[in-house]
Design goal:
By secondary structure, the chain is an alpha/beta fold. α4 packs parallel to α5.
Protein backbone atom coordinates (compact mmCIF):
# COMPACT_ATOMS: atom_id res chain seq x y z
CA UNK A 1 0.00 0.00 0.00
CA UNK A 2 1.34 3.44 -0.92
CA UNK A 3 1.98 5.85 1.92
CA UNK A 4 -0.99 7.78 3.19
CA UNK A 5 -0.99 11.54 3.16
CA UNK A 6 -0.27 12.73 6.69
CA UNK A 7 -3.70 14.29 7.04
CA UNK A 8 -7.27 13.74 8.16
CA UNK A 9 -9.54 16.09 6.26
CA UNK A 10 -13.06 17.50 6.32
CA UNK A 11 -15.37 18.21 3.41
CA UNK A 12 -17.63 21.14 2.67
CA UNK A 13 -21.19 19.86 2.50
CA UNK A 14 -23.67 17.02 2.31
CA UNK A 15 -22.17 15.56 -0.87
CA UNK A 16 -18.77 15.74 -2.50
CA UNK A 17 -18.03 18.12 -5.34
CA UNK A 18 -16.09 16.88 -8.35
CA UNK A 19 -13.12 18.98 -7.16
CA UNK A 20 -13.21 17.30 -3.75
CA UNK A 21 -13.37 13.85 -5.28
CA UNK A 22 -10.35 14.54 -7.49
CA UNK A 23 -8.43 16.15 -4.63
CA UNK A 24 -9.00 13.34 -2.13
CA UNK A 25 -8.13 10.77 -4.77
CA UNK A 26 -4.84 12.56 -5.48
CA UNK A 27 -3.69 13.22 -1.91
CA UNK A 28 -4.87 10.00 -0.21
CA UNK A 29 -5.53 11.27 3.33
CA UNK A 30 -5.51 8.67 6.09
CA UNK A 31 -9.09 9.52 7.02
CA UNK A 32 -11.87 12.08 7.16
CA UNK A 33 -13.93 13.92 9.77
CA UNK A 34 -17.59 14.94 9.64
CA UNK A 35 -19.33 17.96 11.19
CA UNK A 36 -22.89 19.26 11.38
CA UNK A 37 -22.60 20.76 7.89
CA UNK A 38 -22.13 17.22 6.54
CA UNK A 39 -25.17 15.72 8.26
CA UNK A 40 -28.81 15.65 7.15
CA UNK A 41 -30.27 12.13 6.98
CA UNK A 42 -29.02 8.62 7.68
CA UNK A 43 -29.03 7.67 4.00
CA UNK A 44 -27.19 10.88 3.07
CA UNK A 45 -24.45 10.24 5.66
CA UNK A 46 -24.03 6.64 4.52
CA UNK A 47 -23.70 7.80 0.91
CA UNK A 48 -21.18 10.50 1.86
CA UNK A 49 -19.07 8.03 3.85
CA UNK A 50 -19.09 5.60 0.94
CA UNK A 51 -18.08 8.39 -1.44
CA UNK A 52 -15.18 9.43 0.78
CA UNK A 53 -13.87 5.88 1.04
CA UNK A 54 -14.30 5.31 -2.69
CA UNK A 55 -12.12 8.37 -3.40
CA UNK A 56 -9.15 6.91 -1.54
CA UNK A 57 -9.77 3.30 -2.46
CA UNK A 58 -9.63 1.87 1.05
CA UNK A 59 -11.77 1.60 4.16
CA UNK A 60 -10.59 4.93 5.54
CA UNK A 61 -11.52 5.79 9.13
CA UNK A 62 -14.24 8.43 9.26
CA UNK A 63 -14.20 10.43 12.47
CA UNK A 64 -16.84 12.43 14.28
CA UNK A 65 -17.19 14.22 17.63
CA UNK A 66 -19.99 12.37 19.40
CA UNK A 67 -19.22 12.93 23.06
CA UNK A 68 -22.81 13.69 24.03
CA UNK A 69 -24.00 16.96 25.51
CA UNK A 70 -22.85 20.09 23.70
CA UNK A 71 -20.43 18.18 21.51
CA UNK A 72 -22.39 15.76 19.38
CA UNK A 73 -23.08 15.85 15.66
CA UNK A 74 -25.84 13.23 15.41
CA UNK A 75 -29.10 14.50 16.89
CA UNK A 76 -32.82 14.02 16.48
CA UNK A 77 -33.63 10.86 14.56
CA UNK A 78 -29.91 10.14 14.18
CA UNK A 79 -28.80 10.06 17.80
CA UNK A 80 -30.03 10.24 21.37
CA UNK A 81 -29.79 13.57 23.19
CA UNK A 82 -27.26 12.83 25.91
CA UNK A 83 -26.47 14.77 29.04
CA UNK A 84 -22.99 16.33 29.11
CA UNK A 85 -20.55 13.64 30.27
CA UNK A 86 -19.78 15.19 33.67
CA UNK A 87 -23.48 15.65 34.47
CA UNK A 88 -24.16 12.10 33.28
CA UNK A 89 -21.42 10.68 35.51
CA UNK A 90 -22.78 12.57 38.51
CA UNK A 91 -26.30 11.32 37.83
CA UNK A 92 -25.13 7.72 37.46
CA UNK A 93 -23.22 7.93 40.75
CA UNK A 94 -21.85 4.53 41.82
CA UNK A 95 -23.14 3.02 38.56
CA UNK A 96 -21.07 5.41 36.43
CA UNK A 97 -18.74 2.80 34.94
CA UNK A 98 -21.52 0.58 33.63
CA UNK A 99 -23.58 3.58 32.57
CA UNK A 100 -20.71 5.12 30.62
CA UNK A 101 -19.99 1.80 28.93
CA UNK A 102 -23.63 1.49 27.86
CA UNK A 103 -23.79 5.10 26.71
CA UNK A 104 -20.82 4.72 24.39
CA UNK A 105 -21.82 1.26 23.19
CA UNK A 106 -25.12 2.82 22.12
CA UNK A 107 -23.32 5.77 20.54
CA UNK A 108 -21.13 3.30 18.63
CA UNK A 109 -24.26 1.65 17.28
CA UNK A 110 -25.61 5.02 16.12
CA UNK A 111 -22.32 5.82 14.39
CA UNK A 112 -21.95 2.47 12.65
CA UNK A 113 -25.54 2.68 11.44
CA UNK A 114 -24.55 5.67 9.28
CA UNK A 115 -21.07 4.48 8.23
CA UNK A 116 -18.94 6.40 10.76
CA UNK A 117 -16.31 4.27 12.48
CA UNK A 118 -14.21 6.55 14.69
CA UNK A 119 -15.27 8.74 17.60
CA UNK A 120 -13.14 11.50 19.13
CA UNK A 121 -13.49 10.05 22.63
CA UNK A 122 -12.61 9.18 25.36
CA UNK A 123 -11.78 12.65 26.63
CA UNK A 124 -9.63 12.02 29.70
CA UNK A 125 -8.70 15.57 30.61
CA UNK A 126 -8.96 15.92 34.40
CA UNK A 127 -11.40 18.67 35.39
CA UNK A 128 -10.60 21.12 38.15
CA UNK A 129 -11.91 24.39 39.59
CA UNK A 130 -10.06 26.37 36.93
CA UNK A 131 -11.13 24.34 33.87
CA UNK A 132 -12.58 26.59 31.15
CA UNK A 133 -16.28 26.26 30.47
CA UNK A 134 -15.72 25.05 26.91
CA UNK A 135 -14.27 21.85 28.38
CA UNK A 136 -15.50 21.43 31.97
CA UNK A 137 -18.74 19.48 31.49
CA UNK A 138 -17.16 17.37 28.75
CA UNK A 139 -14.82 15.82 31.34
CA UNK A 140 -15.52 12.63 33.29
CA UNK A 141 -14.30 13.67 36.72
CA UNK A 142 -11.90 15.64 38.89
CA UNK A 143 -9.31 13.03 39.82
CA UNK A 144 -7.01 11.03 37.59
CA UNK A 145 -8.04 7.58 38.82
CA UNK A 146 -11.76 8.16 38.17
CA UNK A 147 -11.10 9.72 34.78
CA UNK A 148 -8.84 6.84 33.71
CA UNK A 149 -11.36 4.23 34.85
CA UNK A 150 -14.23 5.90 33.01
CA UNK A 151 -12.08 6.56 29.97
CA UNK A 152 -11.38 2.84 29.74
CA UNK A 153 -15.05 1.86 29.70
CA UNK A 154 -15.78 4.57 27.12
CA UNK A 155 -13.08 3.10 24.88
CA UNK A 156 -14.38 -0.42 25.49
CA UNK A 157 -17.94 0.58 24.61
CA UNK A 158 -16.80 2.10 21.34
CA UNK A 159 -14.53 -0.82 20.46
CA UNK A 160 -17.23 -3.37 21.19
CA UNK A 161 -19.42 -1.46 18.76
CA UNK A 162 -16.79 -1.58 16.01
CA UNK A 163 -15.76 2.08 16.43
CA UNK A 164 -12.20 3.33 16.87
CA UNK A 165 -11.73 5.49 19.97
CA UNK A 166 -9.54 8.59 19.70
CA UNK A 167 -7.91 9.47 23.04
CA UNK A 168 -7.87 13.20 23.75
CA UNK A 169 -6.45 15.71 24.48
CA UNK A 170 -2.92 14.33 24.96
CA UNK A 171 -1.24 15.00 27.37
CA UNK A 172 -4.06 16.78 29.26
CA UNK A 173 -6.19 19.89 28.73
CA UNK A 174 -7.92 20.12 32.11
CA UNK A 175 -5.88 23.00 33.56
CA UNK A 176 -6.56 25.26 30.58
CA UNK A 177 -8.27 28.52 31.54
CA UNK A 178 -8.82 29.63 27.94
CA UNK A 179 -10.71 28.16 25.00
CA UNK A 180 -8.06 26.84 22.61
CA UNK A 181 -10.44 27.36 19.69
CA UNK A 182 -9.86 31.08 20.24
CA UNK A 183 -6.74 31.60 22.38
CA UNK A 184 -3.60 29.81 23.49
CA UNK A 185 -3.98 28.46 27.05
CA UNK A 186 -0.85 28.53 29.20
CA UNK A 187 -0.48 26.22 32.19
CA UNK A 188 2.06 27.11 34.88
CA UNK A 189 1.65 23.97 37.01
CA UNK A 190 4.73 22.12 38.23
CA UNK A 191 5.85 18.84 36.70
CA UNK A 192 4.70 17.13 39.89
CA UNK A 193 1.18 18.52 39.52
CA UNK A 194 1.11 17.83 35.79
CA UNK A 195 1.77 14.16 36.50
CA UNK A 196 -1.84 13.89 37.67
CA UNK A 197 -3.07 15.32 34.36
CA UNK A 198 -0.89 12.94 32.40
CA UNK A 199 -1.80 9.82 34.41
CA UNK A 200 -5.06 8.92 32.57
CA UNK A 201 -3.22 9.01 29.25
CA UNK A 202 -0.60 6.63 30.61
CA UNK A 203 -3.38 4.32 31.78
CA UNK A 204 -4.86 4.31 28.26
CA UNK A 205 -1.62 4.35 26.30
CA UNK A 206 -2.57 1.13 24.50
CA UNK A 207 -5.26 2.86 22.41
CA UNK A 208 -4.35 3.14 18.75
CA UNK A 209 -5.25 6.80 18.09
CA UNK A 210 -4.89 10.00 20.06
CA UNK A 211 -5.33 13.75 19.60
CA UNK A 212 -3.04 16.49 20.89
CA UNK A 213 -3.79 19.46 23.14
CA UNK A 214 -3.14 22.99 21.85
CA UNK A 215 -1.73 24.50 25.03
CA UNK A 216 1.58 25.45 26.61
CA UNK A 217 2.92 23.59 29.64
CA UNK A 218 5.42 26.12 30.93
CA UNK A 219 7.22 23.50 33.04
CA UNK A 220 8.03 21.57 29.85
CA UNK A 221 8.38 24.05 27.00
CA UNK A 222 7.28 27.46 25.77
CA UNK A 223 5.79 25.95 22.62
CA UNK A 224 2.24 24.53 22.44
CA UNK A 225 2.21 20.76 22.90
CA UNK A 226 1.13 20.10 19.30
CA UNK A 227 4.25 21.76 17.89
CA UNK A 228 6.67 20.95 20.73
CA UNK A 229 9.28 18.23 20.12
CA UNK A 230 9.87 18.14 23.90
CA UNK A 231 6.22 17.49 24.74
CA UNK A 232 5.75 15.04 21.89
CA UNK A 233 8.85 13.18 23.06
CA UNK A 234 7.42 13.07 26.59
CA UNK A 235 4.15 11.64 25.23
CA UNK A 236 6.03 8.88 23.43
CA UNK A 237 8.59 8.08 26.13
CA UNK A 238 7.09 8.93 29.52
CA UNK A 239 3.38 8.46 28.83
CA UNK A 240 4.29 5.54 26.56
CA UNK A 241 1.75 6.28 23.85
CA UNK A 242 2.76 4.61 20.59
CA UNK A 243 -0.55 5.05 18.77
CA UNK A 244 -1.20 7.31 15.81
CA UNK A 245 -1.16 10.92 17.05
CA UNK A 246 -3.23 13.49 15.19
CA UNK A 247 -3.23 17.19 15.94
CA UNK A 248 -6.31 18.82 17.30
CA UNK A 249 -7.86 20.89 14.50
CA UNK A 250 -4.95 22.77 12.93
CA UNK A 251 -7.23 25.75 12.19
CA UNK A 252 -7.83 26.52 15.87
CA UNK A 253 -6.55 29.93 16.90
CA UNK A 254 -4.46 28.65 19.82
CA UNK A 255 -1.65 28.13 17.31
CA UNK A 256 0.21 31.05 15.78
CA UNK A 257 1.12 31.44 12.12
CA UNK A 258 -0.82 30.16 9.12
CA UNK A 259 -1.96 26.59 8.52
CA UNK A 260 1.15 25.89 6.46
CA UNK A 261 3.58 26.74 9.26
CA UNK A 262 1.37 25.04 11.86
CA UNK A 263 1.15 21.84 9.83
CA UNK A 264 4.87 21.69 9.11
CA UNK A 265 5.73 22.37 12.76
CA UNK A 266 3.33 19.66 13.97
CA UNK A 267 4.87 17.01 11.76
CA UNK A 268 8.39 18.16 12.66
CA UNK A 269 7.51 17.93 16.37
CA UNK A 270 6.44 14.31 16.02
CA UNK A 271 2.71 14.29 15.21
CA UNK A 272 1.83 11.58 12.72
CA UNK A 273 -1.17 13.27 11.12
CA UNK A 274 -2.51 16.82 10.78
CA UNK A 275 -6.24 17.17 11.37
CA UNK A 276 -7.89 19.88 9.25
CA UNK A 277 -11.61 20.23 9.75
CA UNK A 278 -13.27 23.13 7.95
CA UNK A 279 -13.33 21.68 4.44
CA UNK A 280 -12.01 24.87 2.78
CA UNK A 281 -10.28 23.68 -0.37
CA UNK A 282 -7.48 26.28 -0.49
CA UNK A 283 -6.60 25.60 3.14
CA UNK A 284 -6.72 21.84 2.62
CA UNK A 285 -4.38 22.11 -0.35
CA UNK A 286 -1.92 24.11 1.73
CA UNK A 287 -2.15 21.72 4.69
CA UNK A 288 -1.64 18.67 2.50
CA UNK A 289 1.43 20.17 0.86
CA UNK A 290 2.94 21.19 4.21
CA UNK A 291 2.18 17.84 5.87
CA UNK A 292 3.46 15.61 3.08
CA UNK A 293 3.27 11.84 3.18
CA UNK A 294 3.37 9.86 6.40
CA UNK A 295 6.76 8.98 7.80
CA UNK A 296 7.59 5.28 8.00
CA UNK A 297 6.80 5.31 11.74
CA UNK A 298 3.48 7.04 11.14
CA UNK A 299 2.66 4.57 8.37
CA UNK A 300 3.37 1.71 10.77
CA UNK A 301 1.03 3.23 13.33
CA UNK A 302 -1.64 3.83 10.69
CA UNK A 303 -1.46 0.22 9.62
CA UNK A 304 -1.80 -0.83 13.26
CA UNK A 305 -5.00 1.22 13.44
CA UNK A 306 -6.44 -0.46 10.37
CA UNK A 307 -5.38 -3.92 11.55
CA UNK A 308 -7.16 -3.36 14.87
CA UNK A 309 -10.56 -2.79 13.29
CA UNK A 310 -13.15 -4.89 15.14
CA UNK A 311 -16.50 -6.23 14.04
CA UNK A 312 -19.22 -4.98 16.37
CA UNK A 313 -20.56 -7.53 18.82
CA UNK A 314 -24.25 -8.21 18.46
CA UNK A 315 -26.44 -6.46 21.03
CA UNK A 316 -30.08 -5.79 21.76
CA UNK A 317 -30.07 -2.00 21.78
CA UNK A 318 -33.50 -1.79 23.38
CA UNK A 319 -32.26 -3.94 26.24
CA UNK A 320 -29.15 -1.78 26.65
CA UNK A 321 -31.26 1.36 26.76
CA UNK A 322 -33.57 -0.20 29.31
CA UNK A 323 -30.61 -1.16 31.48
CA UNK A 324 -29.16 2.33 31.17
CA UNK A 325 -32.45 3.92 32.10
CA UNK A 326 -32.66 1.68 35.16
CA UNK A 327 -29.13 2.71 36.19
CA UNK A 328 -29.84 6.41 35.81
CA UNK A 329 -33.41 6.59 37.16
CA UNK A 330 -34.91 6.67 33.68
CA UNK A 331 -33.06 9.86 32.72
CA UNK A 332 -29.86 8.55 31.16
CA UNK A 333 -30.22 9.93 27.66
CA UNK A 334 -32.82 12.70 27.81
Amino acid sequence: MSAFGATILGCKGLTLSSDERAFFRAVNPFGFILFGRNIETADQIRTLCAELRHCVGHDAPILIDQEGGRVQRLRGDLGAEWLPPLDFVHRAGPQAERAMYLRYRLIAQELMDVGVDANCAPLVDVAGPQTHGFLKDRCYGENAETVARLGRVVADGLLDGGVFPVLKHIPGHGRAQADSHLDLPRVDASCEDLAQDFAPFTALNDLVMGMTAHLVYEALDDLPATVSPKVMGMIRQDIGFDGLIMTDDISMQALSGDVVSRSAASIAAGCDVVLHCNGEMLEMQAVVEASGKMTSQAQRRAQTVLNSRKTANSVDTAALRAELDALTSGQGHV
